[in-house]
UniProtKB/TrEMBL annotation:
Its cofactor is pyridoxal 5'-phosphate. Keywords: Hydrolase, Pyridine nucleotide biosynthesis, Pyridoxal phosphate. Catalyzes the cleavage of L-kynurenine (L-Kyn) and L-3-hydroxykynurenine (L-3OHKyn) into anthranilic acid (AA) and 3-hydroxyanthranilic acid (3-OHAA), respectively. It is an enzyme of class 3 (hydrolase). It catalyses: 3-hydroxy-L-kynurenine + H2O = 3-hydroxyanthranilate + L-alanine + H(+); L-kynurenine + H2O = anthranilate + L-alanine + H(+). Homodimer. Pfam families: KYNU_C. Pathway: Cofactor biosynthesis; NAD(+) biosynthesis; quinolinate from L-kynurenine: step 2/3; Amino-acid degradation; L-kynurenine degradation; L-alanine and anthranilate from L-kynurenine: step 1/1. This is Kynureninase. Its EC number is 3.7.1.3.
């Protein structure tokens, strides 16, 4: 224990990104926030930014702000996410709607462009919304869902995908980082394998955007969707983003035709004529308020660099695994994430039959991880807002809660 404490203090003392810790709001009564992979902390600057928005952008400029800044915000902010976080050149990313709605739009557009093919391939343990949307589209279009099995700890491998795709595959949908184990998929190799079969590749970036360097353009990815309330700290319900590689512009047509995706928004035309490029994937009025918080976080990431964020993520999760080995493994807790930091995203998952009740105790005591059925606790370590000492505090709290239950 003394060695772990000294190590945590040493890592924090050498952390080049430690200056960012003070940029985030401290929650009263919370000693360890280990759920940044579900909901990122707000920035201290956000209240003033919101007040400024109400006072000036909305309160003073009123509807004039649509012409002055809001109409182009979905694509401008999409370009910023593309530059800072996901390796996408301008004109291919848009912020709009929820993750579920954008998944529907892109999946539906993809299968409509592959009418000679009859299957959607998706991992059987993928996040529920991805699976549910795929099943709904398959039923709507008369397609078959081909379920891909993967190792629950190490995730989807290129061999798994290569053996699942065929000349009947229209679309493959996978998560870049597994929401359960944190396993990191090989984006380039898997995308290449999918393309060899003639299918399109859609990546869910919800657990990787903002914590792992992503190179969508360089990997030749066709489509991607990601949320903004995890490592991009956009706040609860903040809108998602969609990426459509420019080679598919004018070829893929989104299925929810709304006035904001029209070529001339205010023509009030008698028939829908889509806008050029990525803008056509907008449907309704952009959620401007929901786009405010993430802008400050993108500033933080840009300053730290996504490579710097990734390096700290590795030290945080490596330290969490070492603390697990010393403090939790002796209590029959299981490690449910890859040990190799290069094959792991920003969270570490641990398992024990008592963890549903342990999580309740932890939350009551101001230690906030999250529980995932049936018996997993995820330690979600958002690099810019989490210290190594905080990680140790959280792991110690898990140990103490388990001991207390054992002692009866």
């Amino acid at each position: 224990m003394t060695d772990l404490l000294a190590e945590a203090q040493g890592l924090d003392g050498l952390d080049p990104l430690a200056v960012h810790l003070d940029a985030f709001v401290d929650a009263p009564g919370v000693s360890a926030y280990l759920d940044g992979n579900s909901l990122g902390r707000p920035l201290r600057s956000l209240p003033e930014r919101l007040a400024e928005f109400v006072r000036d952008d909305w309160g003073t400029r009123l509807i004039r702000s649509w012409d002055e800044q809001w109409m182009d915000l979905p694509t401008e902010l999409g370009d910023r996410i593309g530059l800072v976080a996901i390796g996408a050149a301008a004109g291919q990313t848009v912020v709009a709607d929820s993750t579920t709605v954008l998944l529907y739009k892109l999946m539906r557009a993809a299968v409509a462009a592959r009418t000679d093919r009859s299957e959607i391939v998706i991992e059987e343990g993928n996040f529920p919304t991805d699976r549910f949307v795929a099943e709904g589209i398959a039923a709507e279009r008369g397609l078959t869902v081909r379920w891909l099995a993967a190792d629950p700890v190490h995730g989807v491998r290129v061999e798994d995908v290569a053996s699942a795709v065929s000349e009947q595959t229209a679309l493959v949908v996978l998560s870049h980082v597994d929401y359960r184990s944190g396993a990191l998929a090989d984006m380039k190799a898997i995308t290449d394998a999918v393309h060899e079969s003639g299918a399109l590749m859609l990546w869910d970036l919800c657990h990787s955007a903002g914590v792992i360097p992503i190179e969508l353009d360089a990997c030749g990815v066709d489509l991607a969707v990601g949320c903004t309330y995890k490592y991009l700290n956009g706040g609860p319900g903040s809108p998602a983003f969609a990426y459509v590689n420019e080679r598919h512009h004018g070829v893929l047509h989104q299925p929810i035709q709304g006035w904001m995706g029209a070529g001339d928004v205010f023509a009030m035309g008698s028939a829908y004529a889509p806008a050029d490029g990525i803008r056509q994937f907008i449907s309704g009025t952009p959620p401007v308020l929901g786009m405010l918080a993430m802008q400050g976080m993108l500033d933080q990431i840009e300053t730290a660099t996504i490579d710097g964020v990734r390096e700290k993520s590795k030290t945080l999760t490596d330290f969490a695994v070492r603390a697990f080995d010393e403090l939790l493994a002796p209590l029959d807790v299981r490690l449910l994430s890859p040990r190799d930091a290069g094959k792991r995203g920003g969270h570490v998952t641990i398992g024990h039959p008592d963890f549903a009740e342990v999580t309740k105790t932890l939350w009551a005591d101001g230690v906030i991880p999250d529980f995932r059925f049936p018996d997993g606790i995820r330690l979600g370590l958002s690099p810019l807002s989490t210290s190594h000492a905080e990680v140790l505090s959280g792991v110690l709290a898990v140990r103490d809660a388990l001991r207390a239950r054992a002692d009866g």
